[in-house]
């Protein structure tokens, strides 16, 4: 153990590392429930994205990615499909842009390959230098607000009204409304909405009390309350609208739940519904959508890079996991020589694993900081976390009984945690404030992470030009800005 992880060198021991690994697991285990609840929305009735398969894929990607981090980089970080990136995949790439989830997985794989190439060639350093800190902070905060909005919507807390004649009903029963549509709170009479509010309260109270695993405890507690309500006679369809008509009673519902060896085996085997489903032909066969696909891939790449880098520097600098020499080597050396370089490489390679098994970008979780706070300093912490994730495969059949009323509160709280990135923004500086506001606001308002990033880039470039600071903008930023503008023009032309 000592030879493998160098425990003494990093001032730790086996007991500390094990406790740290357990802590990290409980702070991020919510992802195994939340990720399927988000990604399944990337599917359609004719092309479903199996949540059971996503659950298994989430665990496999987390285990593999975390073990690579442990043995290749020897740092105490755990990986899983990233929050924000899964929302980008579902609601922007597959929702707004109209790609299938198979085409989305192809983008994720391309993103992973591109990121590895730019890492080993040194292009990553240029991208890091090119994107100003203001945009990095704004993108992180904007994704947080977007995730929170999804949670509020999935909890059923909002209703929308529109003036007569200001909306259209499509054959698919989708309602298209213009700017007259106004959101408002529901009246809270729905048991599912009431349950979601209880879930939010549970998680917020536990977080305020600094209870480890607050989000996971909240999800499990709310799910148990849901089961109690169903047992007491509440119609299961209220919590699970997609249930078949043959499920009419509580006994019918509970009869569908099984954790027998056969059920576990069948559940684990469901990963074949998501694994190796990347559709590269479909992604690029429509020439009108090639530029759109490239824009989405750029969004994946940029978010992936800065999400991981921010986590590493933000948590590793204070604890000594990464020192000043690591950061210097990151920017000056070639290849993967420093501990930070190896950690970034492990993070990026995990994205490829996720694409193969059927989930969105796998990335380093900031919740790893909980384990680090407990003293975790080496890859042994990550090994423990990976083992606990693997054990969760046994419980894969129960994913179907976790209602959106239980996962939606988790999204709201995760959004609160993510939006803290905007605290690094100087809101008294109008230039920074304008760029940040445009980036953050348009992600939830336009229901598109890419739109927020695109408009943020364009706003930043425009302000710098009119202020006579055009030389401060890196050429890579200009190139990205041109691509984003072309994309907006193409969208306008296609809708004429």
TrEMBL record:
Q: How does it sit in the membrane?
A: Multi-pass membrane protein
Keyword Cell membrane attributed: yes
Q: Where exactly are the transmembrane stretches of this chain?
A: 12-33, 53-72, 79-99, 105-123, 135-152, 192-209, 216-239, 290-309, 343-360, 380-399, 406-423, 435-463, 475-493
- Molecular functions per Gene Ontology: purine nucleobase transmembrane transporter activity
Major site of localization recorded for this protein: membrane
Show the GO cellular component annotation of the record.
plasma membrane
Q: Which UniProt keywords apply?
A: Cell membrane, Membrane, Transmembrane, Transmembrane helix, Transport
Similarity comment: family membership: Belongs to the nucleobase:cation symporter-2 (NCS2) (TC 2.A.40) family. Azg-like subfamily.
This chain belongs to the protein called Permease
Instruction: Please report the organism this UniProt entry assigns to the protein.
Output: [Clostridium] cellulosi
């Amino acid at each position: 153990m000592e030879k493998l992880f160098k425990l003494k060198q990093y001032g730790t021991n086996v007991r500390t590392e094990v406790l740290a690994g357990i802590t990290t697991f409980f702070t991020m285990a919510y992802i195994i429930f939340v990720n399927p609840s988000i990604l399944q929305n990337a599917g359609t009735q004719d092309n479903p994205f199996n949540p059971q398969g996503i659950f298994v894929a989430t665990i496999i990607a987390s285990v593999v990615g975390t073990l690579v981090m442990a043995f290749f980089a020897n740092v105490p970080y755990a990986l899983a499909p990233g929050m924000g990136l899964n929302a980008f995949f579902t609601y922007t790439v597959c929702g707004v842009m109209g790609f299938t989830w198979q085409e989305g997985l192809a983008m994720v794989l391309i993103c992973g390959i591109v990121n590895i190439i730019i890492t080993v060639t040194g292009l990553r350093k240029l991208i890091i230098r090119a994107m100003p800190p203001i945009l990095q902070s704004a993108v992180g905060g904007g994704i947080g607000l977007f995730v929170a909005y999804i949670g509020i919507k999935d909890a059923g807390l909002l209703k929308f009204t529109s003036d007569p004649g200001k909306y259209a009903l499509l054959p698919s029963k989708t309602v298209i409304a213009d700017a007259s549509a106004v959101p408002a709170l529901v009246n809270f009479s729905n048991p599912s909405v009431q349950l979601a509010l209880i879930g939010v309260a549970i998680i917020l109270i536990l977080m305020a009390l600094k209870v480890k695993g607050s989000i996971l405890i909240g999800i499990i507690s709310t799910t148990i309350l849901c089961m109690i309500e169903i047992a007491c006679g509440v119609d299961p369809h209220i919590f699970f609208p997609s249930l078949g008509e043959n499920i009419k009673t509580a006994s019918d519902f509970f009869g569908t739940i099984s954790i027998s060896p056969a059920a576990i085996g069948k559940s684990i085997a469901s990963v074949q519904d998501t694994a190796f489903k990347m559709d590269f032909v479909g992604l690029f066969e429509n020439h009108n959508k090639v530029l759109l696909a490239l824009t989405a891939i750029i969004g994946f790449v940029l978010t992936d890079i800065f999400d991981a880098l921010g986590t590493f520097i933000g948590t590793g600098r204070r604890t000594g996991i990464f020192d000043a020499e690591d950061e210097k080597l990151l920017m000056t050396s070639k290849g993967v020589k420093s501990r930070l370089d190896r950690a970034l490489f492990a993070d990026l390679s995990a994205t490829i694993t996720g694409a193969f098994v059927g989930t969105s970008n796998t990335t380093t979780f900031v919740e790893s900081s909980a384990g680090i706070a407990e003293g975790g300093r080496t890859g042994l912490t990550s090994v423990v976390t990976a083992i606990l994730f693997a054990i969760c495969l046994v419980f894969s059949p129960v994913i179907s009984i976790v209602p959106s009323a239980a996962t939606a509160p988790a999204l709201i709280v995760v959004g609160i945690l993510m939006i803290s990135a905007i605290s690094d923004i100087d809101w008294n500086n109008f230039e920074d404030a304008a760029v940040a506001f445009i980036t953050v606001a348009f992600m939830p308002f336009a229901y598109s992470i890419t739109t927020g990033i695109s408009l943020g880039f364009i706003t930043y470039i425009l302000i710098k030009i009119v202020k006579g600071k055009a030389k401060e903008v890196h050429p890579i930023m200009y190139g990205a800005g041109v691509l984003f503008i072309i994309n907006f023009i193409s969208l306008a032309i296609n809708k004429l």
